[in-house]
Amino acid sequence: MNKIQTAMILAAGRGTRMKHLTIDKPKPLVQVCGDTLLGHILNKIETHGIKNVVINTCYKGEMIKQEALKTQKLHFDFSEEQEALETGGGVKNALPLLLNNNGENGFFVLNADPLWDEPTESVLTQLEKVWNPDTMDVLLALVPIQRAFGDVPDGNYFIENNKPRRKKEGEKNIPYLFMGIQILHPRIFSKSLPFVFSLRDLYDEAEKKGTLAHIIFDGRWFHVGTPQAVIETETLFFADKK
């Protein structure tokens, strides 16, 4: 198993769909059953044994920094953005920090707004067991659409010949959804790339090259993107912790 030593959390988004919940704080600091979204994710990272964490920030970034630094067992670097660079631009901008923290053979990247349960083993462990830096540029965690809750977008991937294929325009009944959790190899950023772009562009390129891989997660996944999704997540997932 290729041990991944570094994780990045994408925390630069404005979170406008959270409405009143993000007027005075950034989306990663929205509370879900006694902890922030960021706190829940940092707990998953710490439990997995990762020590190095890079967080990109933009909207109310100082608040995110203060919250993260409460977790004293992790080493943090912060990639500050004057304007939000989207997912791809954010990781590209933070790449020197990721490489300085032993990310040269791959690093985790996690969105700041999903939560998930883990009935068998952690999704980070499942990704790590499959990761092969010699043959993979991108390794995505996918979940069956029927195990996705909260603010659930349409599915975005099919599995064909044991490889993920992103949906095409007009296709329906897409069975799998990307969880916002992945391992990336830094070489995918070596080509000339725009300043602001989506990681999805790199997934599509890896798909064409045959270097896009996946796991199918066996737990439930909660996308906490709206106030209603906060309520649903607390009701379904964290009710036993209240």
Provide an overview of this structure.
The chain is an alpha/beta fold and 242 residues long. The protein has a single domain (6-241), classed as Alpha-Beta Complex (Spore Coat Polysaccharide Biosynthesis Protein SpsA, Chain A), CATH 3.90.550.10. The protein has helices at 37-48, 61-68, 86-100, 123-130, 199-209, 227-236, and strands at 6-10, 31-32, 35-36, 52-57, 75-80, 107-111, 114-116, 138-144, 148-150, 157-160, 163-166, 176-184, 212-216, 221-223. Helix 3 crosses helix 5 (199-209). The chain is globular, with a radius of gyration of 17 Å.
Q: Give the helices and strands as they follow along the chain.
A: EEEHEHEHEEHEEEEEHEEH
Q: Percentage of helical residues?
A: 25-40%
How many distinct folded domains?
1
Q: Stretches where pLDDT falls below 50 for ≥5 residues?
A: none
Please identify which CATH superfamily we are dealing with. Spore Coat Polysaccharide Biosynthesis Protein SpsA, Chain A
CATH topology call: Spore Coat Polysaccharide Biosynthesis Protein SpsA, Chain A
Largest beta-sheet characterization: 7 strands, mixed
> Would you tell me the structural class of the helices and strands?
alpha/beta
Strand segment tally: 14
CATH class: Alpha Beta
Give the distance, in angstroms, between the N- and C-terminal Cα atoms: 36 Å
Gist of the model:
With 242 residues, the chain is an alpha/beta fold. It has helices at residues 37-48, 61-68, 86-100, 123-130, 199-209, 227-236, and strands at 6-10, 31-32, 35-36, 52-57, 75-80, 107-111, 114-116, 138-144, 148-150, 157-160, 163-166, 176-184, 212-216, 221-223.
